[in-house]
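User: Round two. Same drill as before: sequence, then structure, for each protein.

Assistant: Same drill it is. First protein:
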Amino acid sequence: MPGFPFPPWSIFYQSYGLSLEQAVWLKSLLSLSILICEIPGGLLADRLGRKFSLIAGGGLWIISLLIYGLAGSFGAFAIAEILGGMSASLISGADTALAFDTLLQLQQPEKYCQLEGRLGAISGISEAVCGIIGSLVASVHLTYPFYLQTLCIVAYTAVASTLREPMPHTRNRQRPPGHGENPAPSPDRASPPALADPFFRYLWHRDLSHRLAFPGLHATTRAAIAAFGVAWAIFHSIMSLASLSAAQLAARLGIRTTLALLILLLGGSYLLLASIQQPWGIVFIGVIYAVRGWRSPLTRSYLNQDLESNQRAALLSVDSFVFRGSFAIVGPAIGWLAQTYSLEIALLSFGLLLLATSGFCWLKLVHWRVI
């Protein structure tokens, strides 16, 4: 779903007297809320239906946005983040499971990676447009974008109510693009469907990309609020183009090389952001968004290929569960570093941590012949 709230959350929170550390704590609370509700939300989607989960998640999302628009304290924002986390846990996994099972029913599961790439591109363009509109509206009043977003989620919930549940299917063994070069899996290696693949733990970078990088842009350039809308549009356009090319990238380089490249690009971008104190350093924020665009189609396609239909939403929730758990731990620590020392120290620390953990996980996946 496109989002109207403008990119730099730090500006919104600062307008209510909150510090950067408090802002990170709020987003960590969101992650913790999702962490607690993530797997139960996936199980609920598999039992009561993905359509039910999408509608219920949309309803909680609306309440969360209205609290943000009408309230103005840390406590109220904390409640909104908790409700937002419950909403995300209901939607997470259910939307992907519904889409993939629909393709299975149409006997076109091999098209999922391309479909996910196109959806990512559409989402990125929508985010770009909404970012510009949201930033312009926020320059008038900081709460107005939340009301626009509420209307957007009302429309989303209405559309979700018209969806039809596909029939359940058994496991599908076709591999996504880029897996043909890998040797046959050995019988003693860890199974990809178990979602114990530690590589997916590196995905917790995705929210920090703008929670750390955008405040850095603001501190460096002193840009006006409306200018963030332009940057938001550019970055999401980059993410859209990357999403469209994800399947081709994996088919050309292979999944193993592609994932290694994404790790290096991502970790290196954070290190360079910490080192470069010039406005042109925002180029590396664009690289981070490109990695986000490539990541989603590849990893979701990879996971979906080996999951049973009646467990798909629950197991997909584990991916998000790992990410949220990581952010709930790392987020406050990074926020403390930014508040106590500097944003540059926080970015440097996160980049090194990301390279170390992601590199270790990639080596393990290669050793287990998962990729």
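Second protein:
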Amino acid sequence: PSPGQPLVGLVQSLPPRLREGDAVPAVLLAAPRPCRRPRRARCSRPVSCVQREVEILMFLSAIVMMKNRRSITVEQHIGNIFMFSKVANAILFFRLDIRMGLLYLTLCIVFLMTCKPPLYMGPEYIKYFSDKTIDEELERDKRVTWIVEFFANWSSECQSFAPIFADLSLKYNCSGLHFGKVDVGRYTDVSTRYKVSTSPLTKQLPTLILFQGGTEVMRRPQIDKKGRAVSWTFSEENVIREFNLNELYQKAKKQAKPRDEGAEEAPEGQAAAGLANGETKKDK
């Protein structure tokens, strides 16, 4: 029988005068009711926390995919993944406990200050300039074409581009086409003279400038009318195409032939002395 049948029978057994008016509600209120166990309230907080964590991780994945579109080397891909993973971990730790978040953030800062990425020390055919030697070298022989990289050691983009620029110097360097580098983070007056921003948020590092006859011909990345750098990917293919390195290399070799025919080769001691006048990687 249903729970409501005993109540119906009780009401029908009452005298007619009690079934009229407000007596029935009073009887119903006085009747015993079935005892039901109270339902436990469901806690939605763990579910919402898990959903929030999943949203943070999905957002991290989207940012990493967008950043890796501009990455060139495998080191850049891995560096982007680690960097944004640290950001996501910091957010999750702060949501869990502010003390754990502060501890994790402190460890990340200590790691960033003490463990700096190594500099490129591989083979290259590049001359390093200082604030005093760059102008002298560009004006010494105007028949020589120079491709100069303006870089800073603290810039991750410059560190990723270093092996690419070194490989280009090994392939295209000749007597009429030279490659050079200058540290604008160290020589700030050079950055001001050649209009290369060294701000921590700048997109002008690294900057490649092509010099012909001692004057600037082109640079990458370009600067728009508002003084902002136009986005450009520093890959080996882009540098070869934009700077016409194959054509410059052929022209430089043709110009060098008449000079090589009438000139004698310099002794090895003089060549070593000439290299000693320029800066080395250790001087950076």
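Residues 45-114 form one domain.

User: Perfect.
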